[in-house]
Amino acid sequence: MENNFLDKQIIKVRMKKIVLSLVAIAFVLLSFTTADKNTEVAMNVSDLSEITFDGNVDVESSVLYWKGKKPTGSHNGTVKLKEGSMKVKKGKIKSGEFVIDMTTIKDTDGSKRLEGHLSSADFFDVKKFPTSKFVISKTKKQGDKISVTGDLTIKGVTKSITFPATISEEDGVVTFKSETFEVNRANFNVRYGSKSFFGNLKNKFINDMMEMSFEVKVKS
Question: Which CATH code fits 48-219?
Answer without folding.
Answer: 2.40.128.110
